[in-house]
Write a structure and sequence with these properties.
Elements: H1 3-10, E1 15-20, H2 29-39, E2 44-47, E3 53-54, E4 57-58, H3 63-69, E5 85-90, H4 94-104, H5 110-113, E6 114-119, H6 126-134, E7 141-142, H7 148-158
Parallel strand pairs: 1-2, 1-5, 5-6, 6-7
Antiparallel strand pairs: 3-4
Helix pairs in contact: 1-7, 4-6
Amino acid sequence: MSMKPKIKAFFKANRQYAVSGASNDPSKFGFKISKWYLDHELPVVPVNPKAAEILGQEVINSLPSVIESLGKKDIGQHKLKSMNSVSISFLTPPSITTKTLNDISKVDGFKDLIGGLWFQPGSYDETVLQTAEDLGLFDKVIFQDECILVRGEEGLYSSNL
């Protein structure tokens, strides 16, 4: 399947965005992609177990806590109560991406809460892709060296947000 429909489906109204592997280092993609979301006025949660704030955004240290809060409660400045799903950009090493996917799968109803998984180059390997398949999320996966910094605007504009 072409990545184009998946890239379009990654962007929707009432969608929260999260960057797993967000960074305060301007030379890292975890910073550049967090900034891309902010520059496009999209609600983004930086996820990082060590930082407190990235680009003026309060950091959440675990992706499952973001997913569990969707439609139920806000976390700090993040208005998760009004969101019905999350699209996640992964910038973590493949072993961390796999662990995170397994952690996400423990959240009740996770399949309906995940709007899209964008595996940035370097964040995935065969194990990551197989884990996404095993969890029933593969139809929401963007990979094959697709970068949101290159293809994100096309998806955003085609989704008519």
